[in-house]
Amino acid sequence: MRQIERLYLPGGKEHPIAMPQQPITPEENTIVFPDKKKYEVSWRTNFDALTKVQQSVEKAEIVQEEGTYRIPLDNPDLGYAMMVAFSDAHILSYTTDHDLVKKVVDTVINTPNTCLGDCGDTFNNGIWGGLGYEDVFPPYMQAFTVEDMMREVGKKWAFTVLGNHTEWMFNAAGQKPEQIFARHLEGPVFAGMGVLHFQAGEQRYDIAAAHTYWGKSKKNIFNCCVNLRQNEYPEADVFIIGHEHVLGWMTEFVNGETKVYVRPGTAKTKDRYARIHGIARRGQPMGAAIIFGTKERSIEVKPIYEAEELMTLRDKISRLPNEG
User: Is residue 1 predicted with pLDDT exceeding 60?
Assistant: First the structure.
């Protein structure tokens, strides 16, 4: 019903006026919490904030996807440089042959024009399944031990690839292993895989290194190397892949260019896990060394100690008096 108001005109006369009807506010529309805090979500603001965090994290990263290494030449006149393929050492597991590790490392240190390329699982870090029962020392001591080894080898440690065993530190506790054992390494650290521009005297070689890659085969241990070349690093010259504890090397000619595939072997020669799961009776001891020409371009792979003898002999010959 409309409300009636009265308007008083001059002379005292009254004139009724019908006022507009005011609607009644439904009870459910009554604002019970008038000071309720309003919220705002902006996907653009969140994206911008995340980008800043990503930039901050990236600045703190040690790992990279490619890097350059100029091997120090003790004897530039020797004409060759050597890289020992070091992988799957599983240091401080009681299943590892530590005498083998020492012998390989000493070979690197004492052989002229020689460096070490590490393709991962450098220490055991057995925090997955029952592998922890293999660890003689706890994981942090394993990491510190490898760090000290890297300190001694120094500039002769060309690169390190992070393998699945060391990466379990991140999976289990969010602790990136390279921040512990490789923080003082002078050479590049690759997360899983990377390419090393290897400067050997007057020559440069590209080395694609990975801890593992798809297409692994027991019948053809180089199949994963071929896949790494075809899918990731078609321009590289040498392809080194660890993980499977197998040893071998092969040369392939692709479009007239030499491609070298290397499987480095391991120091974990007593592997209960591998035997029980039908992988292999034992790991094949690491034993591959790659010899590069420093004046003329050449690549050849030999057993470590045969390569050591060859490099030592070449060193002695190069130092003989020139009677001509």
Answer: no
Residues 80 and 315: beta-carbon distance below 8 Å: no
CA dist 83 → 104, 105, 311 (Å) = 11, 12, 11
State the angle between helix axes of 164-173 and 139-153 in degrees (0 to 180), rounded to the nearest 10: 130
Q: How many CB atoms lie within 10 A of CB 16?
A: 8
Length of the chain in terms of residues written: 324
Residue with tokens 């699945």: 164
- Which DSSP state fits 229? H
Distance CA 217, CA 238 (A): 19
* Measured distance CA(283)–CA(72) in Å, rounded: 32
From the list 304, 258, 231, the residue with the least C-alpha distance to 223 is 231
Which domains are present in the chain? 81-318 (3.60.21.10)
The pLDDT tens digits of the residues spanning 235-271 come to 999 999 999 999 999 999 999 999 999 999 999 998 8
Q: How far apart are CA 149 and CA 119, in angstroms?
A: 15
Pick from 293, 281, 185: nearest CA to 237: 293
**Partners of 250 in beta bridges:** 261
What pLDDT, in 10s, does the model give residues 274-295?
777 777 777 899 999 999 999 9
The amino acid occupying position 41 is V
Provide the CB-side half-sphere exposure for 236 (13 A, CA): 27
CA dihedral 181, 183, 187, 188 (to 10 degrees): 90
- Whether the CB-CB separation of 82 and 289 falls below 8 Å is answered with yes
What the block records as the tokens of 316 is: 């002695």
Half-sphere exposure of 257 (CA within 13 A, CB side): 11
pTM of structure: 0.86
Quickly count: other Cβ atoms within 10 Å of residue 81's Cβ.
27
